[in-house]
Amino acid sequence: MASLAHLELVRRIDAALPQTQCRRCGYDACLPYAEAVAGGDAINRCPPGGDPVIVSLAALTGRPAVPLDRAHGEQKPLAVARIDEAWCIGCTLCIDACPVDAIVGAAKRMHTVLPALCTGCELCLPPCPVDCIDMIAAGRAWSPADAHAARERFDARTVREARRKNGARGDSTPSPDARPSKAEAVAAALARARARRAKSPSSP
């Protein structure tokens, strides 16, 4: 069992991280990375935090500050996701991927990113089947208040997803409005997009 001192160190390390939940450090979220750092892992694997986070983690762990490990990415100005709504097919895969509930929308409907909530994690980019998401300059810096709010949204989402999964395991009867698989959702969304474009006056 972890000591109280170790748990407090994890808490303080986690508080020093930017809470973008981007996974570039190699862990599933900021807290697992904090736990790993408290256990001896490298303190220089957080590109969004860059040198300021490295300095903070060095002070907390008593280790020397070292340059950012660029194998995990470069430190860059904050960028936020933007969905090209004309191309969005309503597949919900980006919503599923967003760790902080910064994307709103519904199946078969256009999705929108809330820029003030986006952490710039880029986790929504790979699952988009039509590449309609771009990262654009946020025009502002990521603040401690942003980090605090992002952590709260991530924690709330984690609890919600755990309850949903536990509920699904406890009920073997398919719900009449159960969501289709990702492959089915994408196939249906692409079919809708093709039909929409075929009806468009500008279509060749």
What does the model show?
- There is one protein chain.
- The chain is mainly alpha-helical and 204 residues long.
- It folds into two domains: 69 residues, Orthogonal Bundle (3-methyladenine DNA Glycosylase II, Chain A, domain 3); 89 residues, Alpha-Beta Plaits, CATH 3.30.70.
- The chain contains six helices and four strands; from the N terminus they run αααβαβββαα.
- Strands 1-4 form a two-stranded antiparallel ribbon.
- Helix 1 crosses helix 2 and helix 1 packs antiparallel against helix 3.
- It starts with a helix and ends in a 5-residue tail after the last helix.
- About 3% of the residues have low confidence.
Which short descriptors sum up this protein?
204 residues, Alpha-Beta Plaits, mainly alpha, 3-methyladenine DNA Glycosylase II, Chain A, domain 3, 2 domains, 7% strand, two-stranded antiparallel ribbon, two-stranded antiparallel sheet
Topology record:
Elements: H1 4-16, H2 30-38, H3 50-61, E1 79-83, H4 93-97, E2 103-104, E3 112-113, E4 133-137, H5 144-170, H6 182-199
Antiparallel strand pairs: 1-4, 2-3
Main structural class: mainly alpha
**Count of domain modules:** 2
The level-1 CATH class of the largest domain:
Alpha Beta
Radius of gyration: 20 Å
The average pLDDT value, as a whole number, equals 89
Strand segment count: 4
H-E string: HHHEHEEEHH
**What is the percentage of strand-forming residues?**
5-15%
* CATH-defined architecture of the largest domain: 2-Layer Sandwich
Poorly predicted regions are 173-179
State the helicity in percent bands: 40-55%
Strand order of the largest sheet: 1-4
User: How would you sum up the global shape?
Assistant: globular
CATH topology of the largest domain: Alpha-Beta Plaits
The total of helices stands at 6
Q: Report how far the terminal alpha carbons are from each other.
A: 67 Å
Major β-sheet profile: 2 strands, antiparallel
